[in-house]
């Protein structure tokens, strides 16, 4: 199975960004939305990012409008919201689909690597979280109801593992 580092996605600013840029890091990949009941999780995601970035950890945010049309804004509106309301410093990517015929290839990979409950590959809602180890392997999938702080122990365990 390929690693997440083999994929490319557009940054929120529009430039193409190879995920190989994050090679050797532990990643938490999250589909986000600005008008969702789980939107306050941006605060916890940012706290995780700031607490562990120097150890080789990054949150990667992927805005998605597929669930209740809860991410209707433009890239500029999303960036403004994330920066102003939640002071997000982790990388944010261009709005994508996570399910269906237009699903981003990265998300097809994530869902195949870590299916959800009862083997379902579909992402069920905003703020589904995929934890990736330093080798680019998807090691866990967490539901939107899982608070970012609940992942601290798993993240710290992965950060202790060598990248080689």
Strand content: 15-25%
CATH top level is: Alpha Beta
CATH superfamily membership: Glutaredoxin
Q: Structural class of the helix and strand makeup?
A: alpha+beta
Query: How many distinct beta strands?
Result: 6
Walk me through the structure.
By secondary structure, the chain is α+β, with helices and mostly antiparallel strands. The protein contains four helices and six strands, in the order E-E-E-H-E-H-H-E-E-H. The strands form two sheets. A four-stranded mixed beta sheet has the order 4-3-5-6. The radius of gyration is 14 Å and the shape is globular. The chain starts with 7 loop residues before the first strand and ends with a helix.
Topology:
Layout: E1 8-10, E2 16-18, E3 26-32, H1 41-52, E4 57-63, H2 75-86, H3 105-113, E5 129-132, E6 138-142, H4 152-160
Précis, in short:
This protein is α+β, with helices and mostly antiparallel strands. It has helices at 41-52, 75-86, 105-113, 152-160, and strands at 8-10, 16-18, 26-32, 57-63, 129-132, 138-142.
List keywords for this structure.
164 residues, alpha+beta, Glutaredoxin, 4 helices
